[in-house]
Amino acid sequence: MKNNILITGATGFIGSHLTEMFVRKGLKVVAFDRYNINNDHGWLNKSKFKNKFKIILGDIRDQDSVIKAMKGCDTVIHLAALIGIPYSYVSPLAYVKTNIEGTYNVLEAAKILKLKNIIITSTSEIYGTPKKLPISENDPINCQSPYAATKSSADQLSLSYYKSFNLPVKLIRPFNTYGPRQSNRAIIPTIINQCLKNKNRKIKLGNLNTTRDFNYVEDICNAFYEVYRSKNTFGEILNVGSNTNISVKDLTNKIMKILNVKYKIEIVKERVRPNASEVLHLKCNNNKIKKLTRWRNKTSLIQGLIKTIDWYKKNVTAAGENQNYQI
Fold it and tell me: Of 122, 178, 287, 327, which residue has the fewest beta carbons closer than 10 angstroms?
């Protein structure tokens, strides 16, 4: 059916926002995510749009379930992935199977079913610590974690399908995303929740000097939508970011200022990545996506933080630690 869109990883942080946004745009969405015995639909459990999209649970590592979910669709937006960097040190093979083999299953199913629009989700982590800022799509890849290596491999596999089989692939590479529903293990929810629950007036963090290009989830979803509707982006890699960055230390101080609290920041060993694996700085050159699509980043960091903090105040225990599978 025309305009049927399969979104993999749809019950997770970005995926759930994306599912709801595409439904609001009047498109037919099939939400695909990992099978579980509780029939849990993650962040889509209580969605006000639940009667307007179809949910299929399966396994991105199983080609049969991917093909079955994709039948009747003309577009796939692939977000399903293992994304926790620390766990990629523990079980690299799990990331190979999910991030590389899972992407292969999506590409092969799309080829068999002759889909017209395949959007693959990359990550800015694959650039590693860059030699210069901001980072463009032509800058070198420098994977510093097993997670980044598997995502880069999935990118190259996707582009090879575009070149070898003329598969209509587009590759979107978001920089750091934040907003409502994000897992507590991400840096912004970590800071917010420690501020909200703080009893000992200390915030425990890792490296305070790393800098990141943070983007509100609504802006990232709008980028997916603009890439989806673009006819100029087949075979292209598109960075998505704000062309700004901020250190973890300054970010923490901004959040404390919004919340009108002042706590001591304590560096704890468990939160510090191995030296050679730590990506020190990220900042996006977003000229390409702005040239090829109508996308613009509309939410300032302060605006996004206020919206996110308001959500966590109401849902302080909601963003659990079991969101490792979805992006």
Answer: 287
3-state secondary structure of 90: helix
Confidence label for 200 from pLDDT (cuts 50, 70 and 90): confident
pLDDT digits (tens, 9 = 90+) for 68-117: 999 999 999 999 999 999 999 999 999 999 999 999 999 999 999 999 99
Q: Which helix (H) or strand (E) holds 172?
A: strand 169-174
> Mapping DSSP to helix (H, G, I), strand (E, B) and coil, where does residue 171 land?
strand
CB contact at 8 A, 19 and 43: no
Instruction: Give the C-alpha separation, 190 to 182, whole Å.
Output: 10
Overall CATH class of domain 4-177+214-240: alpha beta
Residues 148 and 83: beta-carbon distance below 8 Å: no
Spatial neighbors of 68 by CB under 8 A, at least 6 apart, are 56, 58
Chain-centroid distance of CA 315 in Å reads 21
**Under a CB-based contact definition with an 8 Å cutoff, are residues 120 and 156 in contact?**
no
Q: How confident is the model at residue 324 (pLDDT cuts 50, 70, 90)?
A: very low
Domain residue spans in the chain? 4-177+214-240, 183-212+244-282+298-314
CB 125 within 8 A of CB 279: yes
User: CATH number of the domain at 183-212+244-282+298-314, out of 3.40.190.10, 3.40.50.620, 2.120.10.80, 3.90.25.10?
Assistant: 3.90.25.10
Q: Which of 45-54, 63-72, 141-150, 311-320 has the lowest mean pLDDT?
A: 311-320
